[in-house]
Structure formats: structure tokens, C-alpha cells
């Protein structure tokens, strides 16, 4: 069984689309009047960006404590490259520079109230 999609609720749909397309390598499938967008990545994973306006609420959505989504990078160099790219984005709050996290290497950042983790895949096969 494969995961079909994840639906993320955000206040600023267009800013989220920019982050996921320009920053994280997703492709835009459709943007419906800046209220809802569907994106996909190279691994057939779909991401639905749902605008808070469709929930008929003004406040920024709040996620449960420790809820986050994570994306793997192939190595530490790729993590650093992405960190340096994302730290230029004004709409993001980066927690700290990449570092050892549990049994991997990475960093966390926030888009609105959504925490996102970028790290090296700790389960990938090591080649010598």
C-alpha cells in the first residue's frame, strides 16, 4: 500500500506553493484561485495545500505539538545545500543550523505553524 496524499492546511496557499515548488522540488498540478493547490514530487507523492479560508476561519491553523512532516536528503552535503537555500526565504523560521539529530543529520524549520524536518535518510544503504 502506498500513501496517496497528505492535506496540509495553511493560511497563505501561494507562499506554501512557492516553498514546496522552489524550495523542496515539488511540481504544481493545480492551483485553484489561491485557495487550494495540489502538488506532487518525483516519488508519486501528492501534497494538497488547503487554504484556511476554505475552513471559513481567519486564524493561522495550529498543528498538534510535535506534528511535522519530514523529507530525506541523500547526504549531509544535500542537507546543507537545502538549508542555505531555505534560509533566504523570509516566510520561514529556521530553528538552527543542520546538526546531528537522533541517528541522522538535519534541521527543522517552520512555515507558518507547520514544522518541517530535512534530514539524511538513516535507513539508506551505506556504500563504501
From TrEMBL:
Transmembrane segments: none annotated. InterPro entries: Fosfomycin_Res_Enzymes (IPR051332), Glyas_Bleomycin-R_OHBP_Dase (IPR029068), Glyas_Fos-R_dOase_dom (IPR004360). Residues 3-109 form the Glyoxalase/fosfomycin resistance/dioxygenase domain. PANTHER family: LYASE, PUTATIVE-RELATED-RELATED, SLL5075 PROTEIN. This is VOC family protein. It comes from Chryseobacterium endophyticum.
